[in-house]
Design brief:
This protein is mostly helical. Helix content is about 65%, strand content about 0%. It has four helices and no strands. α1 packs antiparallel against α4. Keywords: Coiled coil.
Length: about 190
């Protein structure tokens, strides 16, 4: 009988241990499911963050390309303004170097090859953002309506008193310098 009681106690202890192990397994399974759900949520947030970063990167690249093109164009405009307002500050376009064959042909009395027309925006060589460039709405509206240029009034008879170019240049050139500085600052940020 003692042996039977001892075995019954062992059986009841083992049954309790089995129940505790089943409870532990159930708790562990719930924790695993919670962790799996957390991992799925984290994966989803990582995908959203990646898409956001890609979009921000594309926007950054477009902004930098636009700012670089604007800066180049402002540099060309500044050079053209200097040609008028400050001839000493004007930088002339570089002369075209003739190839050896072209130099021989010119020395023999031939004509030099034609100079390539500068491309880009207004013949400046700046080509960024030229594809699908936005058009002024008023110009597009006039073209669509078939606006007649003959209906413009004649220009005024006089333009006022003569003023020196130096008085006007400081304001215009300073504004272009400010625009270039603003673009530099924006590109640094």
């Amino acid at each position: 009988e003692d042996k039977k009681k001892e075995l019954d106690l062992d059986i009841s202890d083992l049954e309790k241990e089995i129940e505790e192990t089943k409870a532990f397994i159930a708790t562990t399974m719930e924790e695993i499911e919670a962790l799996a759900a957390g991992i799925k949520a984290l994966d989803k947030s990582v995908m959203v963050a990646t898409d956001t970063r890609k979009a921000e990167n594309e926007e950054y690249k477009a902004t930098m390309q636009g700012n670089t093109a604007a800066k180049e164009l402002l540099g060309v405009a500044m050079n053209r303004l200097n040609k008028f307002y400050n001839p000493k500050m004007y930088k002339a376009a570089p002369k075209r170097e003739l190839s050896a064959e072209d130099r021989i042909a010119v020395n023999m009395g031939g004509t030099p090859p034609p100079t390539e027309v500068p491309g880009g925006i207004a013949g400046t060589g700046v080509t960024a953002l030229q594809e699908g460039a936005p058009m002024l709405v008023q110009v597009a509206a006039h073209r669509a309506m078939g606006a007649d240029t003959a209906a413009l009034p004649p220009p005024p008879e006089t333009f006022g008193a003569y003023t020196t170019k130096g008085q006007e240049s400081s304001g215009v050139l300073a504004m272009v310098d400010l625009l270039i500085a603003d673009l530099d600052k924006e590109m640094q940020e």
